[in-house]
Amino acid sequence: MTHSSSSVFRNQANQSAEVTFILVGFSEYPELQLPLFLVFLTIYTVTVLGNLGMILVIKCSSRLHTPMYFFLSHLSFVDFCYSTIVTPKLLENLVVADRTISFTGCLMQFFFVCIFVVTETFLLAVMAYDRFVAVCTPLLYSAVMSQRFSFVLVVATYSWGIACSLLYTLLFLTLSFCGTKFINNFVCEHAAIVAVSCSDSYVNQEIILASATFNEVSSLMIILTSYFFIFIAVMKMPSTGGRHKAFSTCASHLTAITIFHGSILFLYCVPNSRSSWLMLKVGSVFYAVVIPMLNPLIYSLRNKDVKAAVRKLINTKLICQLM
Length: 323
Known about the structure:
Layout: H1 3-17, E1 20-23, H2 33-60, H3 67-95, E2 100-102, H4 103-136, H5 141-144, H6 147-173, E3 180-183, H7 190-195, H8 202-235, H9 240-268, H10 277-301, H11 304-322
Parallel strand pairs: 1-3
Antiparallel strand pairs: 1-2
Helix pairs in contact: 2-3, 2-10, 2-11, 3-4, 3-10, 4-6, 4-8, 4-9, 8-9, 9-10
């Protein structure tokens, strides 16, 4: 970077740092503020209890110390962090008149949201690969999905999430803003931020679109390829019971993938989905607030091992209290 370009970058950052953003959220529906607050508070409570509870159950149950549940514990951690970054500010803005957020606060929210969205995208792909190895090469599963390799895969997802987030945040900083800007969303989301920029954002949007498309397509390719071979392997199984067991181990993961990627594709790939800011906000609520709540419910309600571990922990606790 040349001296002149770096000085321009610093000047834009300094000018933007003086800007105040106002998160519009759902303020255009004053009669819904209290009902929405109660709904989102309930969802956030379930999210925190569900995801932290899932992490605790996996940690305390030796039966769940396998790669599959190691990845699931990190999915719960990502969902908890993601929801905690977004939902408290949403709840605050539903009950206070001052909906401002500083440039630095918006930047930090954007940075961490990007980390955990990208991380979850590839963590779901890693979990699909784990199911592929378990179903297609069960005798080699322990050797392939070793503790070390599982750790490397998880570190890779976080590292890629941080790398992408740094890129997106640096592109954010190339935009200039002036005065007080109304962000037509409840979270510092890229489309809403770009819409209030005072500078030309064409290059910024194209780079982020290319990166987001690469992340979505590559993760979906891993998932679809894994489940293609899983489906072939399951259909070759001679017993109906074996097929049912194999499909049941993948059902929860497939449900989580469908909900997560369905929401992302709706927001970013469906033509004209951005023409309605209300639809954009509803979609953002779904993947930023609702999905982190759904994942632990999906995996706990459809997973016999998790339910058995929960019952064992409850029984152990009851016994300890009675003694």
